Description:
- By secondary structure, this protein is an alpha/beta fold.
- The chain has helices at 8-19, 73-78, 80-100, 134-148, 176-187, 204-217, 238-248, 271-277, 285-297, 311-322; strands spanning 2-3, 25-28, 42-45, 63-66, 105-111, 117-123, 155-161, 163-165, 189-193, 198-203, 224-229, 235-237, 253-257, 265-268.
- The mean pLDDT is 93.
- This is SDR family oxidoreductase.
Amino acid sequence: MVTGGCGYLGRVLTRLLADEGYEVVALDNGLVPVVGVAPDAMRVTGDVRNPAEWEHLLADVDSVVHLAAIVGDPACAVDPELAWEVNYLGTIRVAQACRRYGVRTLVFASTCSNYGMTDDAEVDEGSPLNPRSEYARSKVMAEHHLLSLPAGTCSTTILRFATLHGLSPRMRFDLAINRMTADAVQRRAITVHDGRQWRPFLHVRDAARAVALVLTANERRPGVRVYNCGSGDQNFRLREIADLVVNAVPEAHTTVQGAVADTRNYRVNFDAVRRELSFHRAFGVRESIDEVVAALRSGQFDDIDAAQYSNYLIARSAARLAV
Length: 323
């Protein structure tokens, strides 16, 4: 089962797992309309906060990949209470259900954003966490819950993903690389705030491959493990990303503004995931920029500002409907 199976990473992951021969159940709350999920995948509409809607399916499930969350600082800021319910309490509900039904493997999608604001030294899995937003704080607390559970038959892996990028059937243009590239192609202009901040980046297809590696490795690895998920050579300052985009879209220009509301700054070490899971990236920032440029220029996306491409706009629309 993949919770959040119709999301940005979920759509890519469900297809990969189906292609590798897994029988996949994609659980999703249906906030973003989609057509299909993956070949041979079962789509189930449900809310991770309400196990009665879906937990009976776990009787036939070996592994759960828990992606479902309100993702991103702006989206969580729309309704912080809801963000905590989904990201923290939803994780507790999923973990409890996995234990009740004897699920053997649980993979939890966390974030390198948990490191928050650091100096320019690399941080690893043992470094202090310094979350700067409701999104990161909810993920940190969800990690704490999973790490506090008594040993059992369910092997748990926490993946702190680098910032994702690249094409997905459920596209997002609110992610740094995707947004800069879209602005360069359609507006011929990129705006960077400060630009000296470090961020690690990971292609969405590589993120899906990392999950698949965990599912195989966890057959031999009981207990709870935490991995930063990404690649050391994909740590970039945001101004460097803008330069790479302009190299691919030479008609665009970059404007650097001094004020920055987002103070996060973290450069991440990924040695453990490479050493223990043999994870190596297949795609990089440059490949992602090229593929997004090609998709935009071919007319695949008309309105990069449409609500369906932004977690913040989706969250805001859902909040209005709930009033």
